[in-house]
Amino acid sequence: MISPDTVLKIALKEEGYLEKSKAAYTINKDIIYEKTAGAGSDNYTKYGKEMHSVLPGVMDFPAAWCDCFVDWCMYKAYGAEDAQKVLCGRFDDYTVNSSNYYKKANRWANNKPVPGDQIFFKNTTRICHTGLVYKVDKRYVYTIEGNTSNKGILVPNGGAVAKKKYVLSYANIAGYGKPKYDVRATCVLGDCNADVVYLQQRLMALGYPLPKWGADGDFGEETFKAVKHFRNDNGLKSSGTVDAACWQKLG
Question: Domain 194-250 - what CATH class?
């Protein structure tokens, strides 16, 4: 199943990985598979090496790797062919190009992120950094990023994979790419699974109230009511079922 849960689990597991120095890599090329050993600032990573093997004409190694990290997570989750469809174009380690693929596919949003979105950041001249959204609440967007640090500000070349959070109004957020997670199961009252978790996270991000315990994966009466409300607001047949048409409206 091509769902955001798959790629987010892979991305979050990489938290704490450090890029390697040229000296360490020269002595032992396998060190790039160690999480923290051989740390440096020369952009030698397993993400860059593996993605260069997949698409050598586009994915450089060594090179700045925030976008490469997102591509690698997608590649590991879905395979090369499907991952590039999910990304609305192809693998690309240049953030400007990656954002343009979403824009050309009409899958770009300036606000209202949801888990699984690809977040893009800007400096004074252009889009310069990217990561994946893994959680959203009323105030913050929570991300997992490569080539950054754990500081709560934009760090486009920090050398690590880190979890971060930003206020939703953070000025350096350029927007969000909406990957094509097109294969999702129909969800109905009584279901309890990962798709329901994602459904609940999307509903909350869009302002539909759920119980205080939030996204628990249990499609109960409160989730049913929220779905029905969402469907009515979006011109869908009145129902509590999350079918293909409802998933499409949810983004």
Answer: mainly alpha
